[in-house]
Structure formats: C-alpha cells, structure tokens
Batch of 3 targets.
Target 1
Amino acid sequence: MNASGKLAWIKAVHTVIWAVLSAVIFFLLYAVITDRLDHWFWWGLGLVGIEVLTLLAFGMSCPLTVLARRLSGSQRANFDIFLPEWLARYNKTICSVILLVVLVGMAWRLLK
C-alpha cells in the first residue's frame, strides 16, 4: 500500500475513534445534567481518562497523528482526520471545556 492509502486508513480509524470518544464525552455531559452517575458514567470517564493520558504521553498529539505526520507534509489541522478544518483545529479546546463542565458538575452532584 502506498503512502496515500496508508494515510487514508489512518484518517478513517482516527475519525472513528474521534466519533466514539466524542459520543462518550457528550454522554458524560448528559449523565451529569440528568444526575445519572451510574457505572456507565464511570466507565466513560475512565475511557476519556485513558485518552487524556495517551495525549499527555504523546506531547498532546494523538498517536495516529504522529503516524500520519510520517506520511504527509501537510500543515492543515485536518490532515490526519476526516473533520472540517475548524473542528480539527479547535477539537481539544472544545472537548476540554465540555470535560471541565462534566468534572465540575460531577463534583457538585457528588457533594450535594
């Protein structure tokens, strides 16, 4: 398989992982809003925690981004994922703000 084929596979896998983790983050927000801090909430929070640790281990980059950089010289924010460029550029900021709301809401729910 050539470099563009490998990059397409990386983009596809990266997009699927992004979609799953985004769904989990929005589920966590829903769970906090509706006061449903059940076992699914904790599993979701653990999954997002693993993603955060992975990002920290790779210098705030996804490991798939690191692989994709070897195959592309593009400087675009979405060179490694099938997302609009604006969303790829601000994805970490958007998710971080939502997670902050989740954590504050979680603390509020647990302390009340």
Target 2
Amino acid sequence: MSHDSVSLGFNQRVKMNKLQSKVFISVLLIPVTVFVVALFLVQCGGNESGKEIKIKNEEAGLVYVEQWMKLTREYITSEFISPPEASRIFAYTGLAIYESIIPAYDQNQSYASILNGQLSLPSSSDALGYDFITVMSECVYLVTEEALKRHVSTYDVSIKELRDQQIAQRRLLFEKVIIEKSIEHGQAMGNAFVKWMRTDGYDTTRANVLYQPPSRINNPAGWEPTDFGQVPMEPFWKELRPFVIEDKELCNSGKPIEFSTDSSSAFYKAAYELVEYDKNITSEQMEIILFWADCPGDTPTPAGHWNAIMGQLVSQKNLSLIITARIYAVVGMGISDAFILCWKKKYEINLVRPKTYIQDFIGPDDWEPFVETPPFPEFTAGHAVISGTAAGLLTTLIGDSVGFTDGFHNSIGLMSREFDSFYEAASEAGMSRVYGGIHYRFTIEKSKSQAKCIVEQVVKKLEL
C-alpha cells in the first residue's frame, strides 16, 4: 500500500546547511545602536568594581538565550542528529545557561551539587564583580562546542561568531576589567561543564557500534528493523548517566499487553486499530500526524520541538530571564533523562513494531504506516514519554491550564496549533503515533505512566 500522496515527504525537503546557521545569527542579532540605547535605560554602566553586578537588562539576556537555543536547533536539524542525542545537547545547553546566571539572583537555587556525577562549578563570590550575561555567553559557547563536537566541523565558526558578537555588545556597556573578569569566569564555568560532560558515558557509547537485534525465529514478538538498511538507533543509550534520576530501574512502566496473534486477542485488536486508521484517516488526524512527526533531518526532533515550545512561551507569557533559564534547564534535563529510561525499556522489552506485526499476521504483506517506522523497538514510545515529561514539568513550573499557540512548524508549511494546556499537547503528540501507524495505543498509555513517574522524581530531587 502506498501513501505517497499523503506521506510526510519531509525527507525530500532541502536540508538546512551551515550557511543558513550563519545567516540566522546575523538576522537575529539586535543592531548594536538599538541594543545600547535600550540597555542603558535599564542598566547602570561605568565603574561597578567592588560589588557583583546584578542582571538588570533581562531583555538582552532573553535575546541571547534564544539565540543559543535557535542555533542549537538549527545544527541538530541540519546534522541529522538523533532524538536521544538531541535531548542531551539541549539539556547541557539549558543547564549551562541557568547555572551561569543564577549567582546574580538573591535566591541562588543552583542544581549543580545535587545532580548526578558531581558537577563542581567555580564560585562567583569575587569582589571585582561580573556581568553574568557575559559569563553565560562564554560558558554556553564552550558547552555548545563540546556537545556538538562529533557533528560540527572545527572549521565551522558559527558558534564562535555568536559568542563574539554577544560579548562585543557587552563591551559597550561595561569597563574592560569587568568584561575580561566575566569572560574568565565563563571559561572556568564552561571548562567545569565540559569536564563533567565527558564522564556521562556518551563517548563510550560512540565506540559501541556492534549491535544485532535478537532473532525473530521462534520469537514473533521480537523487534527487527522494519526497512532494508535500517541500523538500530542508540541501542546503548541506556548506559548514559542521567542528570537527575538516580536509579534507572525507577519508572519501569511495567510491561506491554500479552503478545498474541489470535484475532480475538487484545494485542491483535491493538494492531488492527492502526489498520482502521489507515483506511479512514481524517484531515484533522493527518494534520496531527504531520505536526508531531519531528523527523531527524527535517526538524530538531521531538526534543527540539518541545525546546521550541519553551521558546515560544517566553514571548507569549512574558517570562523573566531566570524563569526562562530554569525552564530550559529543568525541562531539558527531564527530557534527557526520559530518553535514557525510555531507551532502556525499549531494548529490554524489544517488542515488535506494528508494521511488522500487521504485515505478518493481519495483512496485506506490503502494508505501510503513514510515518516511516523509526529504527528502534516499540515499547515504550519516545515521543509520548518525553512529551509527557515536558508537559508535567512545564505544568509544575508555569501552571496548569496554561493555553499556548505552537507555530514552530510554520516554516515548513504546517499551520499553528492551539492548546489549552501542556498535557493536551502531550496527549496529542502521543496519539499522533497511533494515527501514524507506528505505535500501538497501549504503548502510548504505558508511556504516559512512565512520564508521570519521571516528572515526580525530577520534581522531588530538584525540590520544584
């Protein structure tokens, strides 16, 4: 069965390249003259030696934060970075932003000391004083370079250009001694992050390239890649160190329903539901499929979609710099931990995907889902787990029944969608996988339970 007329078609689009990333930087940066005039209205310049410089120009900080996040999303898209790896990058970037600026606030709620792996950051209690936005630019620059090092050529200067342009604007506001001291502190912060990042197990998993899925001979419930040439995605991701979750056995989410090929069984009916959607898909359901597809190389993956939702919330809800930074850090870490636990479950359960089951036991034998089945096992569902995690943490940090508009995919021709709450968006993201034919409904429901547990653990550990 062919769905060419209604399929995503995203992989046929022209991919973003590094030149576009550079263009993005120049377009997004505020003209220097406007920037200076605006900041001097809210920031006292001149000699600030002898005390810490508090962050009074939040508008500039918010612009800088979003520049880093947008640049990161651009790279994740153009470099075809996988969903789990994208979540790791966003988490480190968000945490670096947060920890860089939090010393400027009276209620210093650093997370460094309670995260896994002993993140040891340098103290900022220096009498000379700092511009913490400069600290942030320098720190995030180093963290971003480290996070993208396996994907971005050392000859690509876009990351450094963004850092240089931001700090050049800060030099117009403060004496040289303050800027240089802030750069030095940002370097110390960034180096501490890099040292910590290199102990999370990521580099080790890059060397673990040999993985063969268990044979399906006498094991019809087992998973195998659904398309020729597919390579299992991140089978060793479970070995990474989570940011917050201390025990990877937590949030186990139980087991899928009992496998059966009997036409009267719950499992068979769950698969047949996807066949029915295939035959009777509505225009609204197709819009939902496309909106939440978030394929690597076409978008910055599901993690990047939720990162973009956070960016839209900043302007829609007029969020402050510190709240914005905390959201990027907390939700980023939660999503990253969710990927680790979800991927652990996937390769332990190793459950057959709907495409294989339907072709083998329901028919026709050339049945295809609307969305290309990704190269990893069925249970639990990545998008459902991370969307539920993001929704739960955003609800904790911002509030319940917070309506918002998500227009992130306008640039690829998709209409904006409006939601009355974060949970409504997460629920729709999960169901998009059922409509699209790549997950059973029971997997989505179990994934919601796993997400709820992850949220509870993160909220408890970070004392949110």
Target 3
Amino acid sequence: MSLAERLKKVGTDKKISQQRLAEMADVHYTNVGRYERGDAKPSADVLNRLAGALEVSPDYLTNGSIDDKAQSYISDRELLSQFKRIEQMPEDVKDYLKEIMDAFILKTDLQQKLAH
C-alpha cells in the first residue's frame, strides 16, 4: 500500500474529510487531494502535520505497519502466521526459538558451502 492509499484509508477510517484534514494539518485542501491521489508527495514537515492530525506516525504513512512490511518480505503466509504467533509468546520461549532457527540457518549455510 502506498502513502497515498494509507493517507486516504486512515482519513476514511477516522471519518475525516479532506477539508477537515487540511484544516487540522494547516495544509490547503487541494494538496490533501493531490497527496491522496498520489499526484504529489508531502514535504517532511507536511507529512508530520498530516500524521499528527490523523494520530498516526509519519513512518506508518510512508512505510505502513510492521505487518505490512512483513507481508511484503515474507511470501510464505503460513510462515508469517507462525511468526505472528511466536511474537505473542513469552520472551524466554522466543529466545529459545531464535536459537533453534539460528542453528538451522547455520546448518543450511554450511551445507550449501560444502556442496559448492
């Protein structure tokens, strides 16, 4: 999802019109429309004001949530689901699982090097 799509979605979800968002962020309403269509990108200052008005982080508007990022990097949905479940586990369990994954990664790396 792009900045334009996230900006529009957050505004819609919070029931904030372009006009109202423009007033809250001290931006001309036509610029808000241009940002939502992807015709223009806000400056860092304007992005911060838009994010503040929408009560989200500028990072969320530009990059999305952690889930959005994970989905863009991990194509295996079952693996992504497992990672999400692991994230909810106690820290000691997560640390143990990380050690196991590190061992498998190391083993795979060594096998690949030995095969070449």
